[in-house]
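ARCHIVE CARD
CATEGORY: sequence design from structure
SOURCE FIELD: tokenized fold
FIELD CONTENT:
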């Protein structure tokens, strides 16, 4: 069954626990998730600005959102969604 294969999320998380390591591990436990990448873009006094990339087969977006909310994080935007039988990359000429 084809479903969500990649989510790229702009996320704001409180600086306090849990760590981004713990958040990544928790997200990786979701059925259908094969890989998680969390990149810190900015550190503020009380918050971390993150890019969260989740890849897999038939990712449960609502479960991803729930886990992020449980750790006090907020999704600011959904920057990329890939769905279907395979991953589709943005052509290089469109990225420049």
């Amino acid at each position: 069954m084809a479903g969500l294969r990649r989510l790229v999320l702009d996320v704001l998380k409180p600086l306090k626990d849990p760590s981004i390591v713990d958040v990544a591990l928790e997200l990786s436990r979701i059925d259908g998730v094969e890989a998680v990448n969390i990149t810190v873009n900015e550190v503020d006094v009380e918050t971390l600005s993150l890019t969260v990339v989740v890849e897999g087969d038939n990712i449960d977006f609502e479960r991803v959102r729930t886990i992020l909310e449980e750790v006090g994080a907020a999704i600011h935007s959904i920057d990329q969604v890939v769905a279907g039988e395979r991953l589709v990359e943005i052509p290089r000429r469109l990225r420049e």
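CARD ANNOTATION: Strands lie at 3-14, 33-43, 47-56, 74-84. The domain at 3-95 is CATH 3.30.70.1340 (Alpha-Beta Plaits).
SHELF: design records, drawer C
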